């Protein structure tokens, strides 16, 4: 009975909110009619044509949450916004068309590079076979007989081509992880080198063998073997340039997120700026905590509250300019600066107290729920197989008892937009299936995790812009700075060269470790 009452109270906010959805949509359209209104401008800036994501467990109320609200405000308040998801502006249409053009250009560039590489690879593997088969087809009767050494060369060519095929597949035929703005210089140079190499071999083959119809078939086969050997050496060169060269750390890279100042350090080798940017982004998604813009609204609202409390009176009449008023407001804000740090201190202390209190309630609620499901498992083992619960049903059975505490904790820590009800149920079922403890279940919610931990479609930035004063194909150097921008924030990357370290050796004789005990008359020894 208690679980049912908790369930009804937990989801009462959702039914109350859905009853006012039509009213909210009408008010949103009314706000759009006035282009100069504040709400209308905000609606145009927040418009999106993407499909709205799944409804979070607790609603996206972080932007409206204030520290001074009551603990039960979410159950007694109906929030109506003016943002319409079905409207679109001319700026959005222009941005959408530009994004589509950019995506089409990137796709064409990607497929063009793959096509050129595939055609060149096919030409490389068919050339030695053609060198061996063409004399047999064109002047077979005039060829000298192939002896034992010649037949052994056939086996050598076959195995070398197989090794080259496997190595090429492992090195080049990989699924691309990202689209880079410029071509990969070393890979392009290798493709040009291979083309010139094969072209020179065909030119020599056409002039010295096809035109003269050489009858020394063993020499022709040996010529094909030399081509395969040279291709294997080019493959070794590709491994050195593409894989081994970048392994030795040469630079220390500091990555700073522009909004909250979170930073990390990484070690990189000899890479171009665009490839270093890819490495930074790969590490960002697993090392940096997920970006939460609602955590930055507290400082902005606090500053706005201080400025809203200031009143400026124009005693000189309407003809005075606004610069004097601005200076007066700045001076008044400076005089109030001595007391603002006390307000900040007490606000942070009160927020920490609320977080600790709701965290304790959440831990107790989850531990009680897990003990309940353990007791159910012990009892269900003695019942009929038809009455057993699977992990999904068990998660749905114990979720209402912890939903209220989890809801309040996520709202207090402003994490509710990252966790939908379905994701929480899936995680709970996963923990039950693998016999995980309540502490293991709560690890995802007690602290913000990296971006990889959350829904990929909702929190991954699909588009990054690389901003650099240097060419993105140039290598990293000491003092290089570049910026990676996405929609909400940017990553500032500063490159420093690892200094040269000189180690010296000092030998200590083991026999020199001798000690003397100094006794004094006042000691107790």
From TrEMBL:
Which residue ranges have biased composition labelled Polar residues? 1-10, 74-86
UniProt feature, compositional bias: Basic residues: 19-35
Per its UniProt record, what Pfam families does this chain match? Strabismus (PF06638)
Write down the superkingdom of origin: Eukaryota
UniProt entry keywords in alphabetical sequence: Cell membrane, Membrane, Transmembrane, Transmembrane helix
Q: Looking at the keywords, is Membrane present? A: yes
Indicate the transmembrane segments per the record: 111-133, 153-172, 184-204, 224-244
Q: Where is this region: Disordered?
A: 1-86
Where it sits in the cell: the answer is: Cell membrane
Basic and acidic residues bias (residue ranges): 36-45
Q: Does the keyword Membrane apply?
A: yes
Membrane topology per the entry is:
Multi-pass membrane protein
Provide GO CC annotations from the record: plasma membrane
Instruction: Please give the InterPro entries that the UniProt record associates with this protein.
Output: VANGL
Q: Which family does it belong to?
A: Belongs to the Vang family.
Protein name, please? Answer: VANG1 protein
Query: What species is given as this protein's source?
Result: Eudromia elegans
């Amino acid at each position: 009975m208690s679980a049912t009452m908790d369930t009804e109270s937990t989801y009462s906010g959702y039914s109350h909110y859905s009853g006012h959805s039509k009213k909210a949509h009408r008010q949103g359209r009314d706000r759009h009619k006035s282009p100069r209104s504040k709400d209308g401008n905000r609606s145009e800036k927040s418009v999106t044509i993407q499909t709205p994501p799944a409804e979070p467990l607790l609603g996206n109320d972080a932007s409206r949450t204030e520290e001074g609200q009551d603990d039960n405000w979410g159950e007694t308040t109906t929030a109506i916004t003016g943002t319409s998801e079905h409207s679109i502006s001319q700026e959005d249409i222009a941005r959408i068309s530009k994004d589509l053009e950019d995506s089409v250009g990137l796709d064409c560039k990607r497929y063009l590079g793959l096509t050129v590489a595939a055609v060149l690879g096919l030409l490389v593997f068919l050339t030695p076979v053609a060198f061996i088969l063409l004399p047999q087809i064109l002047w077979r009767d005039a060829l000298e007989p192939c002896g034992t050494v010649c037949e052994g060369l056939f086996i050598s060519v076959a195995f070398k081509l197989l090794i080259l095929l496997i190595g090429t597949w492992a090195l080049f035929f990989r699924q691309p992880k990202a689209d880079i703005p410029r071509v990969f210089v070393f890979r392009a140079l290798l493709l040009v080198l291979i083309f010139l190499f094969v072209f020179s071999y065909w030119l020599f083959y056409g002039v010295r063998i096809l035109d003269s119809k050489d009858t020394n078939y063993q020499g022709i086969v040996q010529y094909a073997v030399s081509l395969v050997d040279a291709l294997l050496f080019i493959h070794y060169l590709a491994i050195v340039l593409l894989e081994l060269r970048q392994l030795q750390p040469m630079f220390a890279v500091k990555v700073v997120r522009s909004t909250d100042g979170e930073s990390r350090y990484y070690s990189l080798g000899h890479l171009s700026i665009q490839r270093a940017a890819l490495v930074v982004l790969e590490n960002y998604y697993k090392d940096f905590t997920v970006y939460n813009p609602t955590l930055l609204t507290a400082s902005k609202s606090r500053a706005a509250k201080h400025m809203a409390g200031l009143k400026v009176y124009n005693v000189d009449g309407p003809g005075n300019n606004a610069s004097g008023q601005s200076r007066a407001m700045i001076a008044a804000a400076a005089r109030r600066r001595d007391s603002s740090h006390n307000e900040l201190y007490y606000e942070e202390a009160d927020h920490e107290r609320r977080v600790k209190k709701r965290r304790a309630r959440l831990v107790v609620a989850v531990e009680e729920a897990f003990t309940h499901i353990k007791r159910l498992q012990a009892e269900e083992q003695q019942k009929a197989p038809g009455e057993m619960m699977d992990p999904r049903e068990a998660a749905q059975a114990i979720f209402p008892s912890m939903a209220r505490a989890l809801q309040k904790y996520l709202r207090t820590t402003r994490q509710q937009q990252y966790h939908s009800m379905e994701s929480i149920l899936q995680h709970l079922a996963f923990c039950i299936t693998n016999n995980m403890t309540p502490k293991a279940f709560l690890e995802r919610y007690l602290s913000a995790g990296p971006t990889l931990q959350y829904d990929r479609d909702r929190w991954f930035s699909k588009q990054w812009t690389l901003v650099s004063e240097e060419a993105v194909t140039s290598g990293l150097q000491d003092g290089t700075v570049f910026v990676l921008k996405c929609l909400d924030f940017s990553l500032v990357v500063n490159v420093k060269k690892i200094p040269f370290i000189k180690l010296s050796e000092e030998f200590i004789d083991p026999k020199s470790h001798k000690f003397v005990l100094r006794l004094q008359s006042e000691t107790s020894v």
